[in-house]
């Protein structure tokens, strides 16, 4: 059911593997590989970031309630809504998202928002 929701609301690929932890620059003995992506394709790091945002959104928000549809609020309203949820997390004694997590969730919801 959750997967169906994410497919319909988020419209992100479900076959993208999570990104490995960042380790910095490639080892000196290896040359960076050329980007085989055709022009106009989505940057792999963008896909990884999108998948990480979906995971963060899902794991954080589903602790307390059903996942909201990004279209439920306007892109302008999402920051206020997420800030209110963060206050509720404190009040209810639930693990509270960090400032960075709040920004990532808001950014994800705004990017997935359909229409005005």
Descriptive terms for the model:
single chain; 116 residues; mainly alpha; globular
How far the N terminus sits from the C terminus, by CA atoms, comes to: 27 Å
Give the overall silhouette: globular
> How would you spell out the order of helices and strands?
HHHH
The tally of beta strands, per DSSP, is 0
Strand content: under 5%
- Helix percent reads 40-55%
Rg result: 17 Å
> Helical region count?
4
Summarize the main sheet.
Answer: none
Structural class computed from helices and strand pairing: mainly alpha
The unreliable regions are 8-21, 35-42
Mean pLDDT: 74
Kindly describe this structure.
This protein has 116 residues and is an all-alpha fold. Helices cover 48% and strands 0% of the residues. The chain is built from four helices and no strands. Helix 2 packs across helix 4 and helix 3 packs across helix 4. The longest helix is centred in the middle third of the chain and has 18 residues. The radius of gyration is 17 Å and the shape is globular.
């Amino acid at each position: 059911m959750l997967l169906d929701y994410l497919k319909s609301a988020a419209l992100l690929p479900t076959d993208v593997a999570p990104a490995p932890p960042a380790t910095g620059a490639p080892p000196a003995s290896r040359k960076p590989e050329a980007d085989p992506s055709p022009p106009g394709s989505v940057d792999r790091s963008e896909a990884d970031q999108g998948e990480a945002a979906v995971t963060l959104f899902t794991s954080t928000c589903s602790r307390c309630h059903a996942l909201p549809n990004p279209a439920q609020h306007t892109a302008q309203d999402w920051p206020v809504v997420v800030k209110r949820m963060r206050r509720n997390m404190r009040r209810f004694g639930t693990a509270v998202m960090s400032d960075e997590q709040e920004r990532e969730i808001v950014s994800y919801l705004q990017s997935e928002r359909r229409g005005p």
